[in-house]
Amino acid sequence: MNAQVGPARTSPERPLRIALLAYRGDPYCGGQGVYVRHLSRELTRLGHEVEVISGPPYAVVDEGVKLTTLPSLDLYREPDPFRLPRLREYRDWIDVLEVGGMLTAGFPEPLTFSLRAWRHLAARRGEFDVVHDNQTLGYGQLALPRLGFPLVTTIHHPITVDRALEIGEATTLRRKATLHRWYGFTTMQKRVSARLTEVVTVSGSSKAEIVDHLGVSPSRVTVVPVGADTDRFAPDPSVAKVPGRIVTTASADVPLKGLIHLVEALAKLRAEHDRLELVVVGRPKGDGPVLRAIERLGLGSTIRFVSELTDDELVDLIRSAEIACVPSLYEGFSLPAAEAMACGTALVASTGGAIPEVAGPDGVTCLAVPPGDPEALRAALGRLLDDPELRARLAEAGRARVLERFTWRNTAVRTVERYRAALAAGPIAPSTAGAGRRGLTERASDVLLGRSPFGRVSAGGPVTGGAAPHRPPASSAPPAVGSGNS
């Protein structure tokens, strides 16, 4: 029986009990993990009770936030990605589904996490006022309202954008076919998205893409910008600027991030500036085009990569740079832009996707360049390196913009408004609009109605066990999905 929704549940003053779902929650894997960590912290500071329910690699949470882990088989973990589990590792039919997805060159994690989350929450009816899914978009989410849970879903941007860019950059038919299969889960995400009733996204650009790519009604999508931790990401005059240092973030080495265009710009810029260093926060693909370009252009001593920095190390790195650069072809928001501006570091940013919504007007709070244009990047970077007064002016205006528009507290307050709207509406069953044809994968959701292809399945209780954090390795796997910065 569904939980009842009454006046007490919708009181605007009453603290809420929130389940925040993250199928890959580790902030070192990208912007979605950062979103989960900071949103959960700020919701707790507002007085709400937050429990993050995460698949591997697991979320990092702050004091006061409860973390519950839902282990998977973690088939893409280091050092043995694409491994075949031993028979004793199989616990249930969801594990079988996970292996089957991998063996058919797909990416099963959004589906299998959604089913594990459904099973977990089915055993905990009445413990939460609202469930907030962070872009899992698996069939399991569609059953949560039937369990009595009002559902709010964040979609940072449609992964179909990543899919189109990746396939467009592929140079062989085999690679294109592999990517088509890997991104097959986007069909599920489109079907699920079109049936959701309360969607939150991070920018106006993302909202337009969600409506266009995923078929979600505009009236069901609310823009709630994310923010920077402006207490931590703040200027510090005691940290010296390193002459010629440029910092950029590439949480995934994929064409979407535009890193290769920045590398090409740096090769041109080096002829004009003797003291030049690019620090990339992220890991490159061992056999990818970025490392090949660095070798071809002789930039090995000019560019270095760093990863798994602590928050304090990341902040000090940004502070030490004369310029921060966001060269992405597309972003649904751009946390790196907001964090650099909050630190008081001058910004060069592309106009891809929602980046202008964050970075602001060209020449006022940043220098803006067209996406995918190495020459424009070279010119903007060179102009800033040569003009310390312009750097200082952009840095001051950039921080003021972030303080006014992009803080995690504002994000939390506006997200709670959507929770209360979902509570007032009650646990509405998802619409069947946009459901489309049923594929073999979608039929896995039959278990939610007790019609499993593996026999009748009970919701059961929480899954136990552990798994090591991982991103699929660049050398053998298609790119990790949904790990880019918001």
Automatic annotation (TrEMBL):
CDD domains: GT4_PimA-like
InterPro entries linked: Glyco_trans_1, Glyco_trans_4-like_N
Any coiled-coil regions, as ranges: none
Domain Glycosyl transferase family per the UniProt entry, residue ranges: 244-400
Region (Disordered): 451-486
An example Gene Ontology biological process: lipopolysaccharide biosynthetic process
Location of the Glycosyltransferase subfamily 4-like N-terminal domain: 30-232
Keywords: Glycosyltransferase, Transferase
PANTHER family documented for this protein: GLYCOSYLTRANSFERASE WBBK-RELATED
Protein name (Swiss-Prot/TrEMBL): Glycosyl transferase family 1
Record lineage: Bacteria, Bacillati, Actinomycetota, Actinomycetes, Kitasatosporales
